Amino acid sequence: MNYMDAIKQKIVQGATEQFVMYGVRSVTMDDIASALGISKRTIYEQFTNKKELLTAVVDHVQSQQECHEQQLAENAETILDEFFLMFNAIDERYQSIGKFTFDVGKYYPEIYEEKYHAYYQKALERLKDRMQLGIEQGVILPTLNLEFSTYMLLEMIYNVISRGKRIVQMHIPITDAFKYTVVYLLRGFSTDKGIRIIDERTKNWKYNVI
């Protein structure tokens, strides 16, 4: 990696932290420069404006998410175990990424339409492939309409993430709402073997409000 590439990567990583932590609308180029300890001019040498930088940040966030999902798949015995590994990784930053995605859609709909539509379609195909693997593993019902079932599961996941504020107003932690949504849909999609796996993984879960 040459010097200019390293500078560009540093800016994207720093901007990612700022946007995720403080919100897309409120963070300025000055804020990013200050947080990185560089001049604003240095940023503008790499990115024409905030919109161009935000586009690069969205690409970075999506790439990180894909790498994370791949790591989960490599460490899971079945497709169901992938989800439970994901649950264990859910933290405050995960919720912040959801808010970041919502902000992009609200304040930069043209970026959202371009980047997240393609990402959603890619996620849909990947989840469909994972569900097919679950059928081969004997944990997902072979009689499912995979296209519709995958769409329904992904839509519910996105709905929980995008409506986080409403869920919080209902006094339900986002993490609990996310887990419940995924687990009970998956349970309905699962064979007896899959249900046993789910019930074993959830037997010690504690919920205060659901």
How would you portray this structure in words?
The protein is built from eleven helices and no strands. It has 210 residues and is an all-alpha fold. It has a domain at 58-202: Tetracycline Repressor, domain 2. Helix 1 crosses helix 4 (50-74) and helix 8 (146-162) runs antiparallel to helix 10 (174-189). The longest helix is centred in the middle third of the chain and has 28 residues, at 109-136.
List keywords for this structure.
single chain, 210 residues, mainly alpha, Tetracycline Repressor, domain 2, 11 helices, 0% strand
Secondary-structure topology with pairs:
Layout: H1 3-22, H2 29-36, H3 40-46, H4 50-74, H5 79-89, H6 92-107, H7 109-136, H8 146-162, H9 164-169, H10 174-189, H11 192-202
Helix pairs in contact: 1-2, 1-4, 6-7, 7-8, 8-10
Apparent shape: elongated
CATH top level assignment of the domain at 58-202: Mainly Alpha
Number of strands: 0
CATH architecture term of the domain at 58-202: Orthogonal Bundle
Helix fraction by DSSP (H/I, runs of at least 4): over 70%
Mean pLDDT across all amino acids: 89
- Judged by helices, strands and strand pairing, the structural class is mainly alpha
CATH topology of the domain at 58-202: Tetracycline Repressor, domain 2
Tally the helices. Answer: 11
Report how far apart the termini are.
Answer: 49 Å
Main beta sheet: strand number and arrangement?
Answer: none
Order of helices and strands: HHHHHHHHHHH
Radius of gyration: 19 Å
Beta-strand percentage? under 5%
Q: Would you identify the regions where 5 or more consecutive residues have pLDDT less than 50?
A: none
